[in-house]
Amino acid sequence: MKERKEFVLRSLESENFRALCREYGISAKTGYKWRERFLKNGLEGMSEESRRPKSSPRGLAEGMVCDIIRIKQKHLSWGPRKVRAIYRRVHGQAPSESSFKRVLERAGYTQKRRWRRREEAGRLCTGRQAKTPNEIWTVDFKGWWNGAQGRCEPLTVRDEFSRYVLDLRALSDASGQSVRAAFERLFAIHGLPEAIRSDNGSPFANTSGLLGLTRLSAWWIALGIDLERGRPGHPQDNGCHERLHLDISRELEKQRIEQQAAFDEWRRTFNQERPHEALGLRTPAEIYRASAKKFAGTPEDLTYTGMESRRVNIVGNIRLGGQGYFISTALSGWSVGLEPAKEAGHWKVWFGRLLIGQIEEATAHFERAAPVNAPKDQPADAGKER
Fold first, then answer.
1. Is 13 helix (H, G, I), strand (E, B) or coil?
2. Dihedral of CA 188/193/198/204: which sign?
3. For residue 378, what pLDDT is reported?
4. Is 346 helix (H, G, I), strand (E, B) or coil?
5. What is the DSSP letter of 134?
6. Tell me: the pLDDT tens digits for 343-366?
7. This prediction's pTM
8. How far is C-alpha 125 from the chain's CA centre?
9. Residues forming a β-bridge with 147
10. Domain map (residue ranges) of the chain
11. Which CATH number fits domain 120-287: 3.30.420.10, 3.30.1050.10, 3.40.1190.20, 1.20.1530.20?
C-alpha cells in the first residue's frame, strides 16, 4: 500500500509515465488503473478490490428469486425439484435445478445433506425373505438358563424357508471361534446358504465396527455368503427364529435340559415329526434340501477381477500411494479390492461382493459405505450393492 501511494503521487508529476511503471515493476495498464482509482476515490482507492463480478449474465432476476421463494413458502416440505416443477408449470420455463437449490439454500430453506452415522450393525437390513431352501439361514443364541451343570446358552441355526432347524448346539462359550467351528460342521453337511441373517449382537456383529463386521461375519463374506441383519431394537425382523426360541424355552429350558443328546433328539422331532401349519402341516424335513453350493473349505484369500488388491494388515490398515488407511481389524489377513471411481483420485473399496467404503487420496481419507437399508416390501435382491 505504501508503494502504491508513493507511485500515484509521483505519477502526477512524472513526465515519463512508462519509465515510472518500470521503476516500480508494474505494467503501464496497472499503473493507469491505480492512478484512475486515486483520482476517483483518493488514497482509499488504493486498497485491493474484490475480483468477484459486479453482475452475472446468468444470475437470476430479483423477480424470479421472489417467485421461487413464494412457491417454497406455500410448500415448505417440498424440495428444489418440486419447486422448480411448479415454477415451470406457471412460467413455461425455469432455470436449472442447481439454481433453485442455490436460491433456497441462501434463503435458509434447505441445508446440505450430511452423511449421518448410524449404528453400523443395522445397515444390512434389506427386508429380504427366503423363497427357496438355503436362500437365507438365520442364527442366534437362545437366552441362557441354569441347567444341572451350570449356565446353558445354546446356539440355534435355522433355514428360513423350510423352518428346518439345522443346529441346536450347546457350546462351551459364545466366542466367534466356537461359532465358526459349529458352522464349519454345518457347511460340510448341508452346503453353503446364499445369506445368513443375525441380530446385532456378538459374535455376529459389532455395533461400532465397519458395517458391523466381525471376524466371523467377514469369514462368511469370504465364503460368498451375503449378510442380512435385523434392525436394532426390532426382534420382529427375525420373528420366526424368536418363535423357535419360545418352543425351546417351553420344552427344554423349563426342564433344565442341557445335554447335547437331548438337543439332538428334540431337533429330530421338530424337523421330522412335528407338522407345521405354515408348511401346510408338512414337516420341515419334507421341504428342506441340502444346498447345491458345496463347502470347499476356507479360501486362502480373495481375488478381484479388474481391480487393484490390497491385503489388510493385522492392525486393520492398507496402503495406497504410500499412504496408510485404516479399514477394519475384522478384515485382517484378507484382501480388499480397489475400483477406480468416476472422480479422479477416488477409489471404491470392496470386500468380496460388499462395498465397504471409498478412499479419497487428496485428503487421505477412507469414508465408510452408505447405509444399505430397504423397506420391507422391496424385492428379494433389493439393497445389493453389486
1. coil
2. positive
3. 35
4. strand
5. T
6. 888 999 999 999 999 999 988 899
7. 0.63
8. 11
9. 150
10. 2-46, 64-106, 120-287
11. 3.30.420.10
